[in-house]
Amino acid sequence: MFRSRELSPVELLEAVIARTEAVNGGINALTETLFEEALPAARQAAIRYARGRDLTPLLGLPVATKEKHGIKGRTLSQGLVARKDEYAVEDHPVVERIRRAGGIIHARTTTPEYSCATVTHSPLWGVTRNPWNRRYSPGGSSGGAGAALAAGLAPLATASDIAGSTRLPASFTGTVGFKAPYGRIPGLAPLSADHYRGDGPMARTVADTALLANVMAGRHLGDHTSLADGPALTVESASVAGMRIALCIRLGNYPVAPDVEANTRGVAAALRDAGAVVEEIELPWTVEATSRTMFTHFGYLLGPAMEDETAGSEELLAPYTRRFMADARRAAEENRFVDGVRAETRLQAELATAMEGFDALLCPASAVAALDADGMYLDGIDANGEQLEHYWQGHMTAPFNIANRCPVLAVPSGMADCGIPTGVQIVGHPFDDATVFTVGAAVEAVLPWAGRRPELLTLA
């Protein structure tokens, strides 16, 4: 529409600004807006379209960035009260690439403290709510991104994922999120060396997610783990005819809610109708072992990093942050680093064996259908009548951070009984990004989603 002059980048941005002013007060998805900077950039983009040259992939498109993706000269608090006056000294690599591609960063999105929770609230920014039903959370840690996309505050957003922080908000908000394989999208040192982590895109469609992923990917001098450019992602062909897809409902013993299971099976049936061979499999995993493996890893990397960053200001932290650090510390005390590595490689081998002969794996993103917007879950979570020790155990994303060379695309699967969306994960073989986008585009084609919008319901 920009190219045909049916729509101007200025008109689009003005519509996004009006939408933000109308509805963000009810969901609290943004930490700040950058409209004064964004409008001149939109005018410049309109001039470039009028001239018909220098047209870059994101030219004129508004992009909301997660607050942790620092913008030089802007605050970089990661939701911590003690760091609310700290500023980024450089652009994060994904910010740098979005701007180079012509994207206009018009807003920054909320997270829980240090992006360490699957709900999005903090003492600094308050509670972020799900636009589909404001009683519930949009998930975390990229909850502000998911809420902003679902509510129409942005067409594209950045996210990050160390245990599900992209895929869970996508699942809970009816949007699309991509956990790229480790190294595909560059991060910032020193945690860029953490092989669980990864930055990535979120959007409302599979094609838009691929567009942003292509911009974000590729080698970066600041991240020695980053990979050379791979083939550009495209969703022009969404055919799954003849593909073999493994369906795994419980990933071992996750207590999956009936509505989540029904929606996941609905996606599998739709893919079958589209010509894929879908075969149900089992995996020998347990919630307890996955949680222990994950927190052992956190106990040697993320946990100590968080303790260093928050030393002297512990009393200002949210209870969920203190709980996370304590759990990570305890896991490191109980398990050696090599114990964690053994557990990780065992899980990876089990996944490789299960996926042999299949093109992709399909499973739910979360065993529980919803989280309360302001929930702390310090005593665990009730999952389908089973009390789990830790609320992280209610989500099914962490195994694929442990097996983090696998690309994973989260796409909508339907509506939960409580009135918010559910989602599935499409898991590919290591570094086979193209396949998960092909399957994701097929799901989108057979189960159209883009026309569904939240009504911004009031609190129940």
TrEMBL record:
SUPFAM superfamilies: Amidase signature (AS) enzymes. This is Amidase. One of its GO terms (molecular function) is catalytic activity. Residues 11-436 form the Amidase domain. The lineage of its organism: Bacteria, Bacillati, Actinomycetota, Actinomycetes, Micrococcales. It comes from the Bacteria. Belongs to the amidase family. Gene3D superfamilies: Amidase signature (AS) domain (3.90.1300.10). Pfam families: Amidase (PF01425). InterPro entries: Amidase, Amidase_dom, AS_sf.
